[in-house]
Amino acid sequence: MPKRTSYAQGTPNWVDLQTTDTAGAKAFYGQLFGWAYDDQPMPQGGAYSMAMLGGEPVAAIAPQSPELAAAAAPAMWNTYLAVDSVDDAAARVEAAGGQLAMAPFDVMDAGRMAFIIDPTGAPVALWQASQHIGASLVNEPGAVTWNELVTSDPSAAGFYEQLLGVTTSTMDMGTGPYTLFEVGGQMVGGTVAPQQPGTPSHWQVYFAVDDADATAARVTGLGGTMLAGPFDTPVGRMAVAQDPQGAVFSIIQPTPPPA
Asked: Does residue 58 contact residue 52 with C-beta atoms inside 8 Å?
């Protein structure tokens, strides 16, 4: 379903990049994925740059908050999860074992959001849509196609089940079982242990590409770094990359469906 007009609760619906160099990041991803930008001024200064693909919003790039900049925090991609009521969900976070990092607040007429930290330490945003549903184009080259919780804590899925009502199932990825998050019987994300011991828990963002090897070559040509791959998996050929400002993301060339 490349075009989206709504998201059910518990479904990842948006990603944005908080970075130390918005101009550099916009140039990198614009050349890598073919993004154009709709710059929307922010009240605190700077712009929230909506990444557009075929006239549809697929992601955003924004400057770090003063607090993150003062803490010398690394650039990072954020995942947003759709909720029916951000206030109701935020009120359940602590009882489910998480932390409320930023209380619910309105983002003009776009929607209402909160930032939380799950019991494994992974930050994630909750988004109650109003005028902005999130990404209106997904699963196309240059757009988000998957969101994955990377954590060494196997009980992590229980937090999202309790908080958002998602369900889980497992599939064999060839290297062992992989836990899927499901909403209404549809796969919406997953959770997996990190490949490197000591990796902090985080939500990883996957962008679809036509050719993983060619995209990996462009990453390095544009000043980024390849951290892993490209390598083959049962669901496609993928790789892990780092942009010039240090934000980590994944790319995947999905396996074509059987004829």
From this structure: yes
Q: Give me the CATH code for the 144-254 domain, please.
A: 3.10.180.10
Report the relative pairing of strands 123-129 and 76-82 from DSSP bridges. Answer: parallel
| This prediction's pTM | 0.94
Report the pLDDT averaged over residues 92-115: 95
Give the span between the Cα atoms of 249 and 205, in whole angstroms: 5
pLDDT tens track for 165-177 = 999 998 877 767 7
User: Which amino acid belongs to residue 230?
Assistant: P
Ramachandran assignment for 104, one of left (phi > 0), alpha (psi -120 to 50 degrees), beta (any other): beta
Domain covering 12-129, topology = 2,3-Dihydroxybiphenyl 1,2-Dioxygenase; domain 1 (3.10.180)
The confidence band for 194, taking pLDDT boundaries of 50, 70 and 90, is confident
